[in-house]
Design a protein that fits this description.
- By secondary structure, the chain is of the alpha/beta class.
- Helices cover 47% and strands 14% of the residues.
- It has helices at 2-11, 18-28, 31-36, 39-44, 49-61, 64-73, 88-91, 123-138, 151-161, 183-191, 209-219, 234-244, 262-269, 278-284, 290-299, 304-310, 320-327, 331-343, and strands at residues 77-80, 99-104, 112-117, 142-145, 166-169, 193-197, 223-227, 248-251, 273-274, 318-319, 347-351, 354-357.
- The protein has a 9-stranded mixed beta sheet, with helices on both faces. The chain has a 3-stranded antiparallel beta sheet with strand order 10-12-11.
- Helix 8 runs parallel beside helix 9 (151-161), helix 11 (209-219) crosses helix 12 and helix 17 crosses helix 18 (331-343).
- The radius of gyration is 22 Å and the shape is globular.
- The model is unreliable at 360-367 (pLDDT under 50).
């Protein structure tokens, strides 16, 4: 818990993001040493002048114990790269946030799909959101969005009304709800999902924060669905991040006469997968049998053999014989465990005795 203080402290420093966090960890070995390092050592670690100035200033101004107490008093969970509960999908992206603030629970949300779009939803867009999100929620898919007005807010509400889980990624602290009219919605999300942000508590919703937070929306998700987006919509930024992260990008077609559909039609022209019903998403992401797979995972929890097999699987097909040699386990054992893992939705058979990970980022979509 004491180590967490240094993650929180460095997260307060403007100019120290994922790349510099990693550089400090690699140079000093731990964040406590980095936080307490003299100026000369920080310069040797190649911290640029702006980040160095900000770090020295924050170090003088911030009481780490009070910082930790504030987070605990707010009922906020703090996850770092080293936390076992850090979302595995998010951890895979190049610029995964070193510190993640969570209000609510991230529980079984590895099967997540982002639903994003314009703040000025048309009646058509609203109806599409209701139909798609309701079906996704009924199939056990967690809906991720940005709590914004329009498509985002409708997506969260629909998921909640359908009894599903939903995660909202904020461009401010998780204790600062924006837009303010979504306070009640945010409270409902905390009860049936989570509010998530990489910004420290108390951070105001500055315009510059929102594009960067979109990488987390896509990073938490297996795929991103864009429902109505103008040519300058932030939803297109989320789609770009998804493509860079190797996640599937989906778009709902709209009228060529509607400005609200210009961005979606552009995405489709550039190669995004077309969506006319939830089944398009479920089949592409291999989530057709998700409720049954969740039951199987609860009945048959993961064991050491599964963990050993997972280490040697990727998006590239691997033969049972290869897995047997790599994991140093009998072929019969590998085969029987793979059969169970397929039922649980962890792996897929793609040929005779050939297996791949079920949800390897980049497996099915290339921008």
């Amino acid at each position: 818990m004491n180590d967490l203080r240094y993650w929180l402290g460095l997260n307060q420093v403007r100019g120290i993001g994922p790349v510099r966090f990693r550089a400090l960890l690699n140079f000093f070995g731990d964040l406590k040493t980095a936080w307490e390092a003299p100026r000369a050592a920080l310069e040797e670690a190649r911290l640029d002048s702006r980040a160095l100035h900000n770090l020295l200033q924050v170090r003088q101004q911030v009481d780490l114990d009070q910082l930790l107490q504030r987070v605990q008093a707010a009922g906020v969970q703090v996850l770092t790269w080293e936390s076992p509960d850090y979302p595995p999908l998010l951890l895979q992206i190049a610029d995964a946030p070193p510190v993640l603030f969570v209000k609510g629970t991230l529980n079984g949300d590895e099967w997540a799909v982002a639903v994003v779009g314009t703040r000025k939803a048309t009646p058509y867009g609203r109806e599409v959101v209701h139909r798609l999100v309701e079906d996704l929620a009924h199939n056990g898919v967690t809906v991720v969005s940005g709590l914004a007005r329009g498509i985002d807010g409708i997506a969260h509400r629909t998921a909640l009304e359908a009894g599903g889980r939903t995660v909202a990624v904020l461009g401010c602290g998780v204790d600062v709800i924006y837009p303010p009219e979504h306070r009640q919605l945010a409270a409902q999300i905390v009860a049936q999902g989570a509010l998530v942000s990489d910004y420290p508590l108390g951070t105001s919703p500055e315009a510059a924060n929102f594009p960067a937070r979109n990488r987390i929306i896509s990073g938490l998700s297996l795929g991103v669905v864009v429902i109505e987006a103008g040519v300058t919509s932030g939803a297109l930024i989320t789609a770009d991040f998804a493509a860079e992260q190797g996640r599937d990008v989906f778009a709902v077609p709209g009228s060529i006469l509607s400005p609200a559909s210009t961005g979606c039609n552009q995405l489709l022209r550039d190669g995004a997968a077309v969506v006319t019903e939830a089944r398009d998403i479920l089949e592409t992401l291999h989530l057709n049998h998700l409720p049954e797979q969740k039951v199987m995972r609860e009945l048959l929890p993961a064991d050491e053999t599964e963990a050993a097999i997972l280490k040697h699987l990727s998006a590239e097909p691997c033969h049972v014989d290869e897995l047997s040699r790599a994991a140093a386990l009998p072929v019969a054992t590998i085969s029987s465990v793979l059969a169970l893992m397929e039922l649980k939705g962890m792996v897929r058979q793609v040929g005779t005795l050939q297996y791949v990970l079920a949800h390897e980022p980049g497996e099915t979509y290339t921008w």
